[in-house]
Amino acid sequence: MATIRLSDITITRGDLPGHGRRFAIHNLTLTIPHGKTVVILGPSGCGKSTLLRVIAGLEAPDGGRVLFNGRDVAGISPGERKIGYLFQSYALYPHFDVKRNITSYFFFRRKTPEMTRLREEKFKRTSELLDVAMAYLLDRMPANLSGGEKQRVALGRCITREPELFLLDEPFSNLDAKLRNTYRQHLKTLLREFSITTVYVTHDQQEAVLLADLIAVMRLESSESRSVGSVEQIGTVRELYDHPGNTFVADFLNLHGDVPAISFIEGGAIAPELDGYTIGVRPEDVAIGGDAPGAGVRAIVGEIKEDPLRQYRIVAFKIGPHTLTAKLLPGTTCAPGEPVELRFRNYHVFDRPSGEIAARTEAIRKALG
Ligand code: ADP
Ligand code: MG
After folding, report:
1. How would residue 290 be classed by pLDDT, with cut points 50, 70 and 90?
2. Ligand 1 atom nearest 42 alpha carbon
3. Which of 139, 145, 207, 313 has its CA 20 to 30 A from that of 101?
4. Which CATH number belongs to the domain containing residue 217 in this structure?
């Protein structure tokens, strides 16, 4: 079992044909706690695969250290790091059948009765976990497997090896949506059962929310000549949603799907004392009138939509030049064009222009409750 720490990692890459502009990661620090699944979530090109490669030892950082249980692993080869690594593309031994691929770890060990027993036991448990439908695959060669089947075998092989650390790089992104869902569920069960420290890379929010104990949100900032990847915040889904550290995280993690995760309003459009701040409001935190404290925020009702199940109404309010999207309970009545006073059950205050979270001062409380 391992706690992994990336400490002050810096990576710089020059222009390479086919890889676009220069890319860098500066002073990245991240802890992956023992036994937890940390999902690195970020857009394509932000450096997710690069970080996995650095943890695995396939790539050396230009600065900083990688620590396994507090020990610098700079001199330790990838093979010695006790890692199960699963890529987007399936790397199976083409000349071994499925069963041998799954138990290849034992194949390369000395053969004793004890090892054979262990191998059979491991194999049985792994196939159970991977799904009922493993038996029919066992004698096949990788060339005769579908993408989904190959990835199932690759996953099985990772588990049988008993790695101290699992590194999974968008392993299901080549599968169709239905299969992807099934595999995510299986993987979730597996990770829970084995409590192996895991780093899972994806650009898919749903996947991140399902699998993660902790999500590390990454960002990519690009200028004409270069792009820079960074980890903005790490926390449970709840922590990231309830306490985003900046406007990027607040907006990026969207648990709704049908509406924006948060609406941003320039403070000055609400009250003069809020000038210099950006106020962020989640769609479920808006109410019309009501008895929440605070002075109420003047708004004009804009477009109104019912959600398909009629569980709430999606209402766009205008506050000065800004739009605030809200999910209101079905009973709430309002009509387009009508002026209303809004109350916020909760809201987030960010500094402008940095976008970093700001303390709630007395003046802010007075204005917003
Ligand atoms: P992600 O996995 O988040 O999509 P990567 O870690 O693969 O991102 O890549 C990060 C950046 O580094 C990208 O801008 C990519 O173009 C660049 N890059 C990736 N691999 C190489 C390489 N071998 N040489 C130079 N640049 C690379
Ligand atoms: Mg990648």
Report:
1. low
2. 3
3. 207
4. 3.40.50.300
- In terms of domains, do 284 and 193 share one? no
Q: Ligand 1 within 6 A of 16 CB?
A: yes
Q: Is 13 in the pocket of ligand 1 (CB under 6 A)?
A: yes
Asked if 243 and 316 sit in the same domain, the reply is: no
Which structural domain range is residue 210 located in?
4-252
Number of domains in the chain: 2
Task: Output the CA angle 151-145-195, nearest 5 degrees.
Answer: 20
Phi, psi dihedrals of residue 25, rounded to the nearest 5°? -125, 130
Q: What is the mean pLDDT of residues 284-313?
A: 84
Task: Find the DSSP H helices in the chain.
Answer: 48-56, 98-102, 104-107, 113-130, 147-160, 177-194, 205-211, 237-242, 247-252, 362-368
User: Residues 309, 360: contact at Cβ < 8 Å?
Assistant: no
Query: What is the pLDDT, as a whole number, of residue 291?
Result: 57
CA 92 – CA 146 distance, rounded (Å):
12
**Which ligand ends up closest to the CA of 47?**
1
Do residues 227 and 325 share a domain? Answer: no
Q: Is the pTM of this model over 0.70?
A: yes
DSSP state letters, 247-283 = HHHHHH--S-SSS-S-EEEEGGGT-GGGTTEEEEE-G
| Nearest 10 degrees: Cα torsion 157, 160, 163, 168 | 30
CATH classification at residue 287: 2.40.50.140
> Are 172 and 297 in a shared domain?
no
> 3-state SS of 169-194?
ECCCCCCCHHHHHHHHHHHHHHHHHH
Would the CB of 19 count as within 6 Å of ligand 1? yes
Mean pLDDT of 146-170: 83
Supply the pLDDT for residue 1: 67
Could you tell me if residue 257 is inside a domain? no
Lowest mean pLDDT among 23-32, 203-212, 285-294: 285-294
Instruction: State whether 75 and 205 are in the same domain.
Output: yes
Size of the chain, expressed as the number of residues it contains: 369
Instruction: Based on the fold, state whether residues 180 and 108 are members of the same structural domain.
Output: yes
Q: Which of 252, 279, 297 is the last residue in one of the domains?
A: 252
Cα dihedral sign for 171, 204, 24, 51? negative
Distance 51 CA to ligand 1 centre (A): 10
Q: Of all protein residues, whose CA lies closest to atom 20 belonging to ligand 1?
A: 19
225 and 310, same domain (yes or no): no
